[in-house]
Amino acid sequence: MADPFTIRIFVPDGDPEGVRLIDRMNWTGLGLVFPRAKWLEVRQRQELQRTGIYILVGYSTQDDDLPTLYIGQADGVRGRIESHYTGKDFWDWGAVFVSNSGGLNRAHVTWLEYALVKRANEAKRCHLDNGNSPQEPALSEAEKADTRAFLKEILQILPLVGLRAFEIPKAVAVPQAVDPTVVPQPKSAKPDTIIVPAQKEGFEKVFLGEDCWYAVRISGGMLDKIKYIAGYQTQPVSAITHYAPVSRIEPYGEGGKYKLVFSEPAKAIGPIPYADAPQGAMQGPRYTTFAKLQTAKKLTDLVQRADQ
Predict the structure, then answer these.
(1) What is the pLDDT of residue 275?
(2) Does residue 179 belong to any structural domain of this protein?
(3) Are 246 and 263 in contact, with CB atoms under 8 Å apart?
(4) Are residues 149 and 200 in the same domain?
(5) Is the CA virtual torsion 96, 99, 104, 108 positive or negative?
(6) Number of folded domains in the chain?
(7) Which of 55, 225, 244, 282 makes an SS bond possible with 266, Cβ 3.0 to 4.6 Å?
(8) Has residue 186 been placed in a domain?
């Protein structure tokens, strides 16, 4: 069980969406979180003259589900962030971590940069704008222990300011569904299947190729009920063509979306055509029962018509 902790957030200008200073009791560090729009004011703060590590966060395109991050370090972080303010357009806000006691040196922040890039790559919850992955610098055993402790503090703070890209995804539901053609399942009257729309390229690459589907919005009350997923291929197919049992559901990105991981490769079904379904019936995920999915002849057998 993780240790409980308390953080303090000071809002110097009274705007909760503006600059925030973050510290913890018995911690030598200090976090500074700020929106890009406030940079010309923030850059005057003396904390930014110190050696530190920084993370710039944003989205490269409006359609991205995963944020883009740039992770950097410097003896004085202000100069580096200043160059990114003019040279990198993607980021909307930034987080800086420095030492209150002057205990961080260039070797320490270089190791922190290495560790954060490595963890971001392992978590796979963001796109990295860093051109290269830094190599682990040499630290003494004592220095590495102290720097690991500083990293732990950073990783505990970041989710509380809205960044979960460094957290290894944990399942929010583990249905452990099985193939009903092998193990007969009771016919439930309650929805246990999610139907997701997919374009041909993404469907073949992810649904069939990676045995998962992601960036799905799911109602909170449905998370522990979903046992199966069905894929509806958009035009020109315009039909449900495959299904798979779901083994677990994980968070995906920062926007309240999820990733569904299959317990086995998807199998063909139907196809179940769009037919006379109302316009827009499959613009987003829909819920049904697997019993209906097995017997449906057309989409309206699963998705109620608007005039019924």
Answers:
(1) 92
(2) no
(3) yes
(4) no
(5) negative
(6) 2
(7) 244
(8) no
| pLDDT tens string 131-180 | 888 899 999 999 999 999 999 999 999 999 999 999 999 999 898 666 66
CB distance 303 to 230 below 8 Å: no
Is the residue at 46 inside a domain?
yes
CA atoms within 13 A on the CB side of 298: 9
User: Average pLDDT in the 247-271 region?
Assistant: 94
Range of the domain at 104: 8-161
**Residue 183 confidence (pLDDT):** 55
Higher pLDDT, 76 or 25: 76
- The pLDDT tens digits of the residues spanning 208-222 come to 999 999 999 998 899
My answer on whether 36 and 129 are in the same domain is yes
Check whether residue 46 and residue 142 sit in a common domain.
yes
How far apart, in Å, are the Cα atoms of 108 and each of 112, 142, 237? 6, 11, 55
Encode the chain in three state secondary structure. Answer: CCCCCCCEEECCCCCCCCCEEEECCCCCEEEEEEEHHHHHHHCCCHHHHCCEEEEEEECCCCCCCCCEEEEEEECCHHHHHHHHHHHCCCEEEEEEEEECCCCCCHHHHHHHHHHHHHHHHHHCCCEECCCCCCCCCCCCHHHHHHHHHHHHHHHHHHHHHCCCCCCCCCCCECCCCCCCCCCCCCCCCCCCEEEEEECHHHHHHHHHCCCEEEEECCCHHHCCCCCEEEEEECCCCCEEEEEEEEEEEEEECCCCEEEEEECCCCEEEEEEECCCCCCCCCCCCEEECHHHHHHCCCHHHCCCCCCC
Assess if residue 25 is contained within a domain.
yes
Q: 13 and 149: one domain?
A: yes
Here the tokens at position 81 are 């962030």
pLDDT at 306: 35
pLDDT at 62: 83
Instruction: Output the pTM of the full model.
Output: 0.85
User: Which one is predicted more confidently, 94 or 183?
Assistant: 94
